[in-house]
Amino acid sequence: MLSLFALHTSNRFVHVTEVERGLACDCHCAVCGEVVLARQGDVREHHFAHSSNAEPCASGYESDLHRFAKRVIVEAGGLVVPVTAAMSMTLGFGARLEPSLLLACTDIEEEVTVGDLRPDLLAATTAGVQVAIEIAYSSFCDAAKRQAYERLQLPALEIDLQSFTPTAFDVGQVKRAILAAAEGKTWLWPEPMDIEPAALGETVPAHPDVTPPRPFLPEEIVTIQGRWISVKELPSGDVALKAVRYDPEIVSVVRTVARAHFGRYRGTHHNWVIPRFRAEAARAQLRMIAASLS
Predict the structure, then answer these.
(1) Who has the most CB within 10 Å: 18, 126, 200, 293?
(2) Whether 121 and 183 share a structural domain
């Protein structure tokens, strides 16, 4: 099979139509690392070829498509998603009239393990809510995976790219499907309510599958040998951990607990944010550490 993708010297995973012709493409094979040239003639399908004329390295189209889609989302810093009442409530958007919205993200990581799952991408929205993103081409998430996301209370979006076969791959259309279109995207969790309001501006009925909003907990101060750790709940339900005053030992405790509960560091606030589905476990661990050292 012809190679349609390669790794640019900028470390971007690119399609052959995104680069200059020939060696000016400035790319190398993503499998073996050899320099490649972009063949963009009028007769054969555009493709990358090894500069040594070696046979194309074995690389599955589906895995390449996944890698390309992840690059596009990471570079964009967000994407348009469909709006449902369940999704709007869970992500903290309130009542929405429009059928879609731009989900802006402050951080997007690839292949992060969350519980027993490893989504293609794990994004953090500007509101601090974590969202898993799955790219689908020939295999789609089954009921077991949906249930796993529900157990974690982790919103998850699946993007259907099955129509973009190797011969039907148009960079502009693929990017539009990934970033700008709501069609072809499905929320694995939260699933749509049994009865979605005709207009999401209407009052959303209660639903057993959607956790009702909880009142924010006040800031909690965990004291470890006279030194303070701030545990503050964010509007998203995530919690922020921070040493109130700089102390290497306390900073180390915060970092250890945060990493154990899928936390991410926010340099702008000098704190660690723990996703809401691990918030109580993180609180409990900090309290246990404090009790053991008292």
Answers:
(1) 200
(2) yes
Asked whether residue 24 is assigned to any structural domain, the reply reads yes
Q: Are residues 177 and 279 in the same domain?
A: no
pLDDT score of 217: 54
pLDDT at 30 (0 to 100): 94
State the Cα angle at 158 between 107 and 14, rounded to 5°: 65
Same domain, 169 and 244: no
Decide if 205 is inside a domain: no
Beta bridge partners of 81: 101
Alpha-carbon dihedral angle through residues 149, 150, 151, 157, given to the nearest 10 degrees? 20
Count of structural domains within the chain: 3
pLDDT the model gives residue 138:
94
pLDDT 10s digits, 232-247: 988 777 899 999 888 8
Longest CA–CA span in the chain (Å) reads 76
Which domain does 253 fall in, by range? Answer: 220-292
What token pair was written down for 194? 């049994």
Task: Name the β-bridge partners of 109.
Answer: 122
Which parts of the chain sit beneath pLDDT 50?
Answer: 194-195, 197-216
* Residue 224 belongs to some domain of the structure: yes
- Residue 72's pLDDT is 94
Whether residue 72 is found in the same domain as residue 136: yes
- Check whether residue 74 and residue 172 sit in a common domain: yes
Report yes or no on 213 lying in a domain.
no
Nearest to 231 by CA among 282, 276, 277, 265: 282
